Amino acid sequence: MNKKILVTGGLGFIGSHTVVALQERGFDVVIIDNLSNSSIEVLGGITKITRISPEFENLDLRDKQSVNNFFEKYQDIDGVIHFAASKAVGESVQNPLLYYENNLNSLIYLLQQLKEKEAPKFIFSSSCTVYGQADELPITENAPVKKAESPYGNTKQIGEEIIFDTCSAVPHLKAISLRYFNPIGAHHSANIGELPIGTPQNLVPYITQTAAGKREQLSIFGNDYPTPDGTCIRDYIHVMDLARAHVIALERLLDNEQENNYEVFNLGTGKGNSVLEAVQAFEKVSGKKLPYTFVDRREGDIVAAYADTTKANRVLNWTAEFNIEDAMESAWKWQQKLEEKN
Ligand code: UFG
């Protein structure tokens, strides 16, 4: 019988791509999503790709009773991948309590249920934001966790601590935190992708919307950083590479291959690209010239971050297969498909 995996936030950006990867690998999937930052149409997109409709529960993980009821109903869950969370850095500064409530209560309620199970497996969606501006590049998992720049970042740090402490107290709980660098791109079929609500805060959706004529021009935040071209450097990782990494991490848990019952991995390409290089990569694959202007630095931005992926390469036997151009091409295809629909 297939193993059954709960994917919270499974209609979101990284969640939906991971659901596809899980189904293609033969897992049965149950999605929990409260549609607060996603659309029910994503379910159709997933089904179009895999020809399998995942089970879906519209449920708010902040409601402890609902979480308990869910696990009553689904007693056969073999593992949980927990994506559901709020993720806008600026919004978290404006409304910290919303972020702490959303991102931490949900995590606590899930773990409370899981620890009662016989062999619980848990994967947590973490972020390179836990490192802040690291002193050394590339960033290894041993780099110190610095004071968070935002309540959002703090929820990821605290989330990891909650899992660490729970794993120490509950040895039969097996967990992995995956620290993503900058996830971009879309499924190559363009049936699912990133769906930002309102004005995009992140670089790539802003680029694709500008090229599609929905935004006048891209504002590049700062060109006076201490980098070769003056713009910030990030490690842009294709969402399908991330999705595959989740499946590998899950199988590591299910096959009891862990060295400790809590492990942490960086997920990135290992390569840093500047904002200008990202724009050039987009222009190359789309054949379109992107209008942009330089503006002041954005508050809270770090200068440069890219992953040392040695641990994920060695332990998970995972390496990113796509580069920034592949990711831009898929993001652009997705944007064009969205324009056709509208
Ligand atoms: N940028 C622009 N113009 C824009 C948007 C972004 O110049 O309109 C620049 C940013 O200044 C930054 C780079 O593009 O240099 C990437 O910015 P994103 O907002 O796409 O991504 P961040 O690196 O700021 O944020 C990502 C995740 C967060 C996470 C953070 C940790 O989206 O969830 O990494 O560093 F917290």
Query: CATH top level of the domain at 4-184 and 236-268?
Result: Alpha Beta
Query: What is the arithmetic mean of pLDDT?
Result: 97
Oligomeric state, counting identical vs distinct chains: single chain
Can you write the helix and strand succession as a string? EHEHEHEHHEHEEHEEEHEEHEHH
Low-confidence stretches: none
Ligand species: uridine-5'-diphosphate-4-deoxy-4-fluoro-alpha-D-galactose
CATH superfamily label of the domain at 4-184 and 236-268: NAD(P)-binding Rossmann-like Domain
Number of strands: 13
Return the structural class. alpha/beta
Largest sheet: 7 strands, parallel
| Radius of gyration, whole Å | 19 Å
The CATH architecture of the domain at 4-184 and 236-268 would be 3-Layer(aba) Sandwich
CATH topology of the domain at 4-184 and 236-268, what is it called?
Rossmann fold
Strand fraction band?
A: 15-25%
Strands of the widest sheet, in order across it, are 3-2-1-4-5-6-11
Features:
single chain, about 350 residues, alpha/beta, Rossmann fold, 7-stranded parallel β-sheet, two-stranded parallel ribbon, 13 strands, about 40% helix, globular, binds uridine-5'-diphosphate-4-deoxy-4-fluoro-alpha-D-galactose
